[in-house]
Structure formats: C-alpha cells, structure tokens
Design brief:
By secondary structure, the protein is an all-alpha fold. Helices cover about 85% and strands about 0% of the residues.
C-alpha cells in the first residue's frame, strides 16, 4: 500500500513538473527558477522510478533466489 502511494506521488510530481516545462518561459529567452526547479524535480522522479524498476526486476529475483 505504501509503495502504491509513493508511486502515485512520484507520478503526480512528474506530471506537475511536465506541466511547468510545457508551459514554457513567459518571457522569450528567460530561464526562470520555476523552470529549473521543474527540470530538477522531473529528473529526480525519473531517476527514482528507474531505481525502483531495477529493484523490482533485477534485485528482487536475486534476493528470492538466495
């Protein structure tokens, strides 16, 4: 249950960061703090999801085999 809630939170953060990135800068050529924060947040969420996939698909079966 906790994992499901964590995944829903990560996906919500990724969607929120995506919305900020897709809206684009309000001034042409501007690279604001909100856009930078959205990029960092999206990168962290993607890294977390990749880590979780590795743990489920690679580490989990190896731990059960021991």
């Amino acid at each position: 249950m906790t994992t499901s809630i964590g995944l829903m939170v990560m996906v919500a953060l990724l969607v929120g960061a995506g919305v900020v990135l897709l809206r684009g800068p309000r001034q042409k050529g501007a690279f604001g703090l909100a856009r930078l924060l959205a990029l960092v947040l999206a990168g962290l969420v993607v890294l977390f999801l990749v880590w979780m996939v590795m743990m489920v698909l690679w580490v989990g079966p190896h731990m059960r085999a021991m």
